[in-house]
Each structure stands twice: as structure tokens, then as C-alpha cells.
Give the backbone structure.
Amino acid sequence: MTLRALSPLDRLLVDAQNALSTLAGKPLARRANPAADTADVELDPAERRHAAGLMRINHVGEVCAQGLYYGQAAVARDPQTREHLLEAAQEETDHLAWCGERLQELDSRPSLFNPLWYAGSYALGALAGLRGDGWNLGFVVETEHQVEAHLEEHLQTLPEADLRSRKILKVMKADEARHADHAEQAGARILPQPIPKMMAAASDLMKAVAYRI
Ligand SMILES: [Fe+2]
Ligand SMILES: [Fe+2]
């Protein structure tokens, strides 16, 4: 998608539409669900609860990714940076759809706080973006590295039998690593401390809450 020719009002409408489809709609994945051909092995109730908690965290992570990327794109100065952000956001939409599908299969639901996570992330993304495109891209790199690390942690702690969640998380992890690489190549700045530490603390809070609610 290109926003080069869109007016500020058009952009606002695109943002509003994305917020709605992230929070209330059925996000449309462009790629097939990586778990489509993987057996859905029966989990015992405790395993299923744990898997659902982890997938709810990942779903919230993707809601945040939508907010961050759209917030950043809204204020990006260079059209190329904006396109880069929105391209990555499309892959995050795939992740969002796949995590939502898996949550349903696990008889669970997304976080009740998703509107708050989205709004907070959008504001944070716009704030980062206002500091300039180098910062904007640096923020992408840091976020994606942190997400990649927590996906690895989830791959270690998911129930052994939950092959479907595992398949989804593996593809997501590879995508997030690529998003970070692309942002680095596009001229990301390295964010100074304490910003990465504060981002990690915010994400720890999100994970603790989203595991349950
Ligand atoms: Fe993602
Ligand atoms: Fe990503």
C-alpha cells in the first residue's frame, strides 16, 4: 500500500480503519496459516491454559505492532520510510490473524485490554517517529529484537504437544528478524539507554497482564 498521494484526512481514515479491523474485525492474512497442515494434538486442560496464555501474549504483541507501525507511519517524514513501515505492518497483520485463529482453537479469547494496548502503542510509535526517521527505524529494530527474544522463550516453554502454535511462532520469529534487518539496512539509529530498558519493562508488564486477561 502506498500513502504517498493521500491527504491527511485520507490517512486518518486509513488509521481508523486499521484500528477497527485490528480490534474488532477479522484481520485478513495474506499468507496461509503456517499451521494449516499440522495436526491439532489434544492438550490437557493445564497445557491448553498455558498455551492460550502464551498465544494471548503474542496476539497482544501483534496488536501493539499494528499500533506502533501505524503510529510511526503517521508521522514518518520520508515516503520510503512510511512504505517500509506499512509493508512490515502487513506481515504483522498475518501474525495477528494467525494468533487470533490459534487462540480460538484453544477455546480462548484475545486480551480485554487490546484497545488500551493499541492506543498506547500508537502514541508511542508516533512519539518515536516525531524524533525523525533514524529514531523511527531504531525503534523498529529494538522492538523486533525484543519480540524475537520472547518468541524464542515461548518456543521453549510451549507444551511439547502444541505443534500448531509452534509452527506459527517459528514463522513469526523469522519474520521479526527480517523486519529488524530491513530497518537496520534502511538507516536505523541505535537507541540509547534507558530507552531499550524502558521498552523491555513495558513489554514485561504487558506479558504479565496478557497471560491472564
Ligand atoms: Fe509480528
Ligand atoms: Fe515484526
Remarks:
- Helices lie at 8-23, 45-75, 79-105, 114-130, 133-157, 163-185, 195-210.
